[in-house]
Structures
1.
Amino acid sequence: MALLVLVRHGESTANLANVFTGWLNVALSPKGEEEALVAAEKLRGFHFDAAYSSDLLRSERTLDLIVSRPAWATIPVHHVAALRERMYGDLQGLNKAETALKYGQAQIDIWRRSYAVAPPGGESLQQTQARVVKFYDAEIVPQLRAGRDILLVAHGNTLRALRMYLEQLTPVQVESLEIVTGGVHVYRFGANMQLVESQNL
């Protein structure tokens, strides 16, 4: 039986400032550092053969804090661009509340939560899913099939896209999928990649 653990990075300085972040390369806030350590504690006793994160600092730092535990200190760690947050285009760096006043909250909700609609100059969740699933199928699935246990640290929309794929959620269902900073989700796969367990920790 193979294990896949998904962790959203801890709170970033941009999360704290309530701005659209996307590919902006921001650090964890002090709370975010604590959330990463809490995630590590939730995973105490788990075995991992390899770990992956996006190549953005907030994701890299979260993974680094988790694997700083002696039990995981020697596992291979990979930081990859395919796991980056969705690209928020023209909205990146803008305050969410101020942007809602300009465009209306209904439009902001469509840009943030819908599957197919992209923010101006950015990626839709559908486009984000395409690159994330391509990486997952090529790099992660063969390891899971071989019985290897994998830790993957990424971003809210990256993980929404991947969970939509793994759990076969509809575009309507994924609109309400919330993944908190520092959130941990565990999948266990049986023979032929049959999903036998899916739970939040």
Note: The longest strand covers residues 2-8.
2.
Amino acid sequence: MKFDHQPSYSLGHRTPSSKDVAPGENGVTLVSQSVLGAINRGRVLQALYDNGPKSRADLARLAGVNRTTITGIVQPMIEEQLLVEGDASPSDFKGGKPARPLYFNPEAPVLGAVLLLPGTIQTCLVALTGEIKAVTKAEFDPFGDRQAFIAIMKDTLTSTLSQAHRAPFGIGIASAGMIDSDNGVILAVNLAPVLTGLPLVKILQEHFSLPVVIDHHPRALLVGDRWFGPGRGQQNFAAIYTGEVLGGAFFIDGKVYRGLAGSGGELGHTVVQIDGEACNCGKRGCWETVAALSWLRREAARIGLPQPGSITCARLVKEAESGSEPADALLERYTRNVAFGIVNLQQTLSLNSYVLHGDLAGGGATAAERVRRHVERLVMMRPNQEISITVNGIGEGHTALRGAAGLVLSSHLKVVI
């Protein structure tokens, strides 16, 4: 399935090349005027995501520039139908021209999004406003034939993209496993070997003739948090995912931290217990060995909880609140084990804000509060420091899909996330 045309919007559909930058004698690097313009457009879009519909005057105040400068940035986006102006609001007591709020055009091209986890595929279309539609789901054999997986992926995406009224801006993929985001390759997925070594970006770009970008699943969750969740408007926070595996991502000084080729965020394989249990990665004592569902279910079986193979944090919370002392004790240990890793992050980066996803998020505010109490007991607190541990109530699937769409914005529309 190929789209015959690309979107015509000039919103910086490329990353800066060597022609765009000019390194000086002392290593100082400047960017070209065209790239600076793309960055400014991206920052205006990010301000709208952070703050909702805003007038030119509002955007000028937020950016600390004059209204003429803002008009020069937003007017081309209005003419290209990326943004629309709402109805004029009444003038204040000072008089002057009535303000007209700017926001995303619901008729603008959408973003394709994919959530790829061991055994499951979800695809959808995401409007610039965050609305999710045309959701398609499929299953695949994580230990099966690679060509069969590729066929299922193409068919699932085709079903979704065929419902777009015009060519999407691109396709963003949130994938489990170890991801080389620079080269678009899934390096390894322990729970789905069929994906290991797969150059998925190249395959889908050639098939659909659209820009494609891929990143680590927890990083997409972080971007989803930044768009519409607890990370909205924040400059520093981390997303922590627990489930069959454990992972995370960082938002530092207003930007997603990726590391070399997207290698940052393998939090499950940071060591919290020297000479501890063997991990799937081959090391011992990884955080994942004491804070993932496999540990939780083994412990549930050891202490005699009923149906231990299906135990979750949500069920533990429910049983603890119903008076089960064993469930309450196991919940306390589970949240403490999660807290150990967060303490190390806090001592290292001092992000102060952590959003829980996956199994821990299923435990809601009760689980989050227990994690927070453990963190505050273990961390070296500074005066007036507050540590926030929250859950994203939007739901993991929608957050990850919105985050996958956000990867397209980041890569091809120059929204700084």
Note: The domain at 111-222+403-411 is CATH 3.30.420.40 (Nucleotidyltransferase; domain 5).
